[in-house]
Write a structure and sequence with these properties.
Elements lengths: L3 E4 L1 E4 L9 H18 L11 H15 L10 E6 L2 E7 L9 E5 L2 E11 L6 E11 L10 E5 L3 E6 L15 H27 L13 H11 L8 H11 L16
Parallel strand pairs: 2-8
Antiparallel strand pairs: 1-5, 3-4, 4-9, 5-6, 6-7, 8-9
Helix pairs in contact: 1-2, 3-4
């Protein structure tokens, strides 16, 4: 069963005049830049000196495009770092009274309505606004906060849970390494025992294999400890000789040039 909680929106001053939003200024600049890059060909870049000009241009783009697509011209930026989550978005076109932020399980849901009056003011049209974001697994859902600037910029923040360090994908712990090694040793031991059992039941007295591995040494030792009837030894030795891969000690190599 899913759980849902509606968050309270804290009303603040204008976005770039309120120090509360300082850590989100850069993110919102990036969001505005992405809209300018999409719809404007002037090459204007957002920085501290051009911020006001860029926001004016962004507002004009937003006004002309919002009826075509509610989302395509909306400034929106999501950042996740070390388990922390932050979303900043332009919602000034949506009615603050109908704007709602909820936490549903591990997701943040932002909903609202967009109203537009006809030119003569006799009618209005509306569209629903809906955005959903999945939180990082180690974000502290209980500490999510939201704030809305009076010029219509919404921020949603979720800090990382205390003492919950984010593990990189594929991280290997000492415990997992130990378990893996233990498992490998057991499998190797089981394999050697099965090989030994198979060979001893075939009544081979001894097979010499030149190798430095401990498993081959065990193989040789185990096979030498079991002897069956002498009459079958020659035939079995020939059969094993046909199937074994010989080492450099029992293969005559002819080098180029007759050396």
């Amino acid at each position: 069963m899913s759980t849902s909680k509606t968050l309270s929106l804290i009303k603040r001053e204008s976005f770039f005049d309120d120090s509360f939003f300082t850590d989100a200024w850069e993110d919102f600049d990036k969001a505005v830049q992405s809209i300018l890059d999409k719809f404007d060909s002037s090459g204007l870049k957002v920085d501290v000196g051009t911020r006001s000009e860029c926001r004016d241009l962004y507002s004009r783009i937003r006004t002309s495009k919002i009826d075509e697509d509610l989302y395509a011209s909306q400034a929106l930026q999501i950042t996740e770092k070390d388990g922390k989550f932050q979303a900043v978005m332009d919602v000034k076109d949506f009615s603050p009274s109908d704007l709602q932020v909820r936490v549903v399980d591990d997701r943040v849901v932002v909903e609202g309505k967009y109203f537009k009056k006809s030119e003569d003011g006799t009618s209005t049209s509306s569209k629903s606004f809906y955005k959903e974001f999945t939180l990082p697994h180690n974000a502290n859902i209980d500490e999510i906060s939201t704030a809305l600037s009076k010029d219509g910029v919404l921020t949603v923040k979720a800090p990382k849970r205390e003492g919950d360090a984010a593990k990189p994908s594929g991280a290997v712990t000492a415990s997992s390494v130990q378990q893996s090694v233990s498992s490998s040793v057991k499998q190797s031991s089981s394999s050697v025992q099965q090989s030994s059992s198979s060979v001893t039941s075939s009544s081979v007295k001894k097979v010499s294999m030149s190798s430095s591995s401990s498993s081959s040494s065990t193989f040789s030792s185990n096979t030498s400890s079991n002897i069956s009837s002498k009459s079958s030894l020659d035939d079995m030795a020939k059969d094993m000789q046909d199937r074994l891969v010989f080492s450099h000690e029992n293969v005559n190599l002819k080098l180029p040039g007759g050396q």
